[in-house]
Amino acid sequence: MALYSMGVMLAPTIGPIVGGWLIDNWGWRWIFYVNVPFAAGGLLMVSAFVYDPPYLKRGLEQIDWGGIGLLTVGLTALQVVLERGQEVDWFASNWIVFGTATAAVAIIGLLVWELTRDEPIVNFRLFGNVRLSAGSGMGATIGFALFGSAFLLPQMTQDLLDYPAYEAGLVLFPRAAAMFCIMPLVGRMYNFFSPRILIGFGMTTLAIAYWGLGHLSLRISAWNFVPLLVETGIGVGCSMVILSTVSLSSMDRANMTAAAGLYTLVRRGSGNIAYAVLATMIERHSQIHRARLDANISLKAKII
Fold first, then answer.
1. Is 301 a residue whose pLDDT tops 60?
2. Are residues 179 and 218 in the same domain?
3. Under 8 Å CB-to-CB from 27, ≥6 apart: which residues?
4. Domain limit, last residue, from 94, 120, 146
5. Is the residue at 125 inside a domain?
6. Residue 73 pLDDT
7. Which residue, 120, 147, 162, sits at the end of a domain?
8. Whole-angstrom Cα distance, residue 2 to residue 34?
9. In the predicted model, is pLDDT for residue 299 greater than 60?
10. Averaged pLDDT, 98-103
């Protein structure tokens, strides 16, 4: 589980570094082009190494096309609303209102539909497991903080500190390095310490680190980010590895894949919400401060 979490959590942390280098040296289009060989390699690896374990149930009587359709419509509409809402002033735009209504109806319809199916494509009944539901909620909180900070820090370093794209991504490297080092250790420590202690330590470390990041000034250097980002890497490493293990530990093997999918969906969804919420907060607060500055500029200063 620690090795799996390393791949899942390190990828979005290393992404800004690689993306910044590509933008500075090759152009923004290569952020998308670079995914093609990795996707092709992933397909080859799946065909070579992924197989069904003997306990996995197969031979479904029918495919849940209704659930697939509602899931596709709901998540697509939600993603469009979250990505484009700020650009068009949210609910001042009719198509954002329409997209929000579509997402709400589709997701509620998906929930009702899947709870009435014998073989649902998304098994929401698994949330009846307390460990899975509680772990998903805590994972969503950590995902909001992790992906939100991955969005905010490059904004600060590029827009306010004038870092080029590569250096802005490089600022996040200490967090990736700390996560890479701590996750295998946490996987071992799980055998000797209560998960409550490890999760509590990780959440407390995250809270302290993010409090420090929230009080940075514009007179800092890149090295001032290092200790705080190392703390966040340790906090995320301790929290996510143990949460993933505890959340899925009580699931029977036949439902393990479905439970892991739900857990990942909740965490990733919280990350997308973090992008939308924080982008809106930045824009709205920028407008507020701009208006306050403008109100205090004298007529003489404006004429000059």
1. no
2. yes
3. none
4. 120
5. no
6. 92
7. 120
8. 27
9. no
10. 92
Say if 142 falls within a structural domain: yes
- The structure tokens listed for 31 are 């952020």
For residue 5, what pLDDT is reported?
63
Report whether 241 contacts 109 (CB < 8 A).
no
**For 155-186, what is each residue's pLDDT tens digit?**
888 888 888 888 887 888 888 888 888 888 88
Give ∠ CA 92-79-77 in degrees, rounded to 5. 70
- Please compute the mean of the pLDDT values over residues 118-128 and round it to a whole number: 84
Question: Helix 94-115 crosses helix 65-84 at what angle (to 10 degrees)?
Answer: 150
Q: Which residues of 146-173 are buried (b: 16+ CB within 10 A; e: fewer)?
A: bbbbbbbbbebbbeebebebbbbbbbbb
Under a CB-based contact definition with an 8 Å cutoff, are residues 228 and 213 in contact?
yes
Place of tokens 């190494």: 49
State how many domains the chain has. 2
Assigned token pair, 61: 């009587």
Helix (H, G, I), strand (E, B) or coil at 26: coil
Neighbour tally for 265: CB within 10 Å: 15
In this predicted structure, the answer to whether residue 138 has a pLDDT above a threshold of 80 is yes
Whether pTM > 0.90 for this model: the answer is no
Which residue is listed with tokens 């992008």?
Answer: 275
The H or E element that residue 115 is part of is helix 94-115
| CA distance to 18, 19, 91, 142, 195, per residue, from 27 (Å) | 12, 10, 34, 32, 45
N- to C-terminal Cα distance for the chain? Answer: 64
What residue has token string 């509409």? Answer: 77
Secondary structure tally for the chain: helices H, strands E: 12, 0
- pLDDT at position 106 is 92
**Rounded Cα distance, 177 and 182, in Å:** 9
**Smallest Cα–Cα separation from 213: which of 197, 200, 232, 199?**
232
Question: pLDDT class for 8, splitting at 50, 70, 90?
Answer: low
